[in-house]
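Because discrete structure vocabularies remain unfamiliar, we reproduce here a specimen of the format, pairing a chain with its fold in token form:
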Amino acid sequence: MRFRRVPVIALAVASVALVLLALTMHNRRVGDPRQGLRRAWVSKGAERPNVVLITLDTTRADHLGCYGDAEARTPAIDELAQRGVLFSQAASPAPLTQPAHCSIMTGFYPAYHGVRLNGVTALGQGQTTLAEVFSGQGYQTGAFIGAFVLDGRWGLNQGFGVYDDHFDMKKFKHLDLAGTQRPGNEVMDAALTWLDLHKDRPFFTWIHLYDPHTPYDPPEPFRSQFAGRGLAGLYDGEIAFADQQVGRLVSWLQAAGLEQHTVVAVVGDHGEGLGSHGEGNHGFFVYDYAVRVPFIIATPFEELRGVHVDTQVSLVDVFPTVLALAGIDSRPRVHGRSLVPLMFRQGPPEEVDAYSECLTANLQYGWSPLRSLRSQRYKFIQAPRPELYDLAADPGEATNVYDKHPAMAAAMNRELERLAEETGRNAPAPEAANLDRETMQRLAALGYVGTPGAASTPTGPTTALADPKDKLQVFSGVQRAGELMTEEDYAQAAQMLEAAVREEPNMLQALLMLGGCYTELGRRKEARAEFDLVLKKDPKNVQALIGMANVLMEDGLTEDVVTLSKRTLSIDERNAQAYTLLGDVYIGRHEPSKALPYVEKAVEIQPKITQNSVNLAACLIEVKEFPRAQAMLQEILGTYPKFPGAQFNLGVLYEEMQRPEEARAAYLAEIANHPNGFKARFNLGKLLAAGGDWPGSIEQMREVMRLAPKLAEGYLFLARALLQQSELLHQSAPLDQVQALADQGLTLARTPELKALGWFLKADVFNRRHQPDEMNVALRNARLQLSLQKGDPSTATPRH
């Protein structure tokens, strides 16, 4: 056994008739092979073939009918396999969605493309994707994505004219990689709509179906059909639903007359544990349930009907194979090889073992990484207690034969080491994904986000690091804690994380999550302690820096927030969270001109984060850039009519522009969309008071008190409205109630303006009661507060 050196992408073969000849003439010049294959496509009625790539997320090969599962209901995929090529031994480079898809789209193993985990590192702009190659050849390119884990911010949108990752984020209570998804029928609807508009020119389309991922909740009739088979049955029901969507694509190709003009590739990105080896889902071990995936290519060529390839292949082979079939000559070196020779069964197959890795245990938990090398028969797993499996005799990997075959294991270990070193050689620096605060917090809660600086430099297996096989229970506990956090059960999650940290005190991921729990529970001192522990171990940990900054912001320590945010930017100069925090600091200090460049930078880096745009619009209002603010808010409302804060800020804008009726309508719209928000009610109450509608103002201020009982504004402005209404109606003022409201407002007030208003209200009460001494004391206190900070307290207005 020997590992071949990293090959050059195979040149496209000459034509269907000349394929065998071209493949036997390795070093002889037979002309440009692209021309021959293009002639073959022309004979089918296409100058250039269309290419459709369908990726089936979380789909085990052994749960498809064409891979031997008699109980599977996958007729569409099975039919593609019958009229195409099925690779029976295809391995994923990683049992995680983002790393695996980056390998599919670039032809490189993770050591080179740099994406080792979900949700932390973006595919660098220096990488070349399939879409970029096809786009460079004049193809129309469109991608249709089923889950937030492949959102364009992680770099896979490179080269696509359309990258449809427009999730309705407001329908999800919490943002997370696993739960933020859309069903396959919606993904396919979008894809078919785009294809209908682009069918007259060659296209490359990527369709990502996420349905088999947790939670397993197939729609009817699949739920009823599979419910009797337990959790694994529901998983199979999701696969059946995904298969139905594949069938819709095949039917569309047939109806459009494009079946003879199109290459369809169907691949899984990774599998699912379903309890095997103790793993319920995926992303921890590298056993075959996680890394053996379906890989099918269907073409219109008779020579490629019903072909089964049993040679070991990898998902890094998708890139060069698809390009070769399309007749595109792409000369950059990649780790994958064109599988066209195997598809046409020309000569003895070249044995190239497949590499897989799972670095979750290492990069997130500090244990040993897991790496494997898979041949057609054997699989070696490199770990502190290494494993070797005879896949032919033991496909379930139940019996470790490492001790029985030491020479085989040693040889595979050497090849794995060489491959790991070779594929990472001269790798470009990875790029950190720039995430907004909510996204980072949600992903960290689920244990997805690791330390960016470590993402490309895993520690090699050593006896000094724990074997992940011994830590599955701890890992499962941390994962469960993440689920509890998404369910807002922070107290229970904290207990589980505290137990994990007692066993593994250096587990940065658990410490970060525990800091997040304490923050949510209002235990800010303890949260700061957890983030401080992380920073002592890893001073450049961006998550801990941002987590600490958020806690300090709650504590009002804004100078420290500025320091931490700027420290973050010294590590990651495009960190959108740091810019947002800096903007928040200066907005809170009523220094909009200082806030503006930071808020604008956050929008520049993350234009898709709508909240960033709302913040920018609010800042623009403060600096009197009204036309720009109005255009931005109207654009947001055109896309998201109920986006929180958009109508509110539009109301503020109209007030500044002296358009009270439009301001009133905007505040009412905000209240209708978000009735539990107090800011729009407060501003509306003040606006009604200015127009003489004191009963309306009183109604809104009572709601402000109910919704925000710890804020002084509701109490003070309700007291003011009660006094004004009594004068308007020539009635006796409810002085006891007004005084009680003023006293409560003074207890809660944090600014001189509000304190001054409270004392003026008390002075008015004492005056009406003919208590001049008390009135004068109250007036002196009011003037003292005004001397601390000049201004009209009646102008206090929440802005954003």
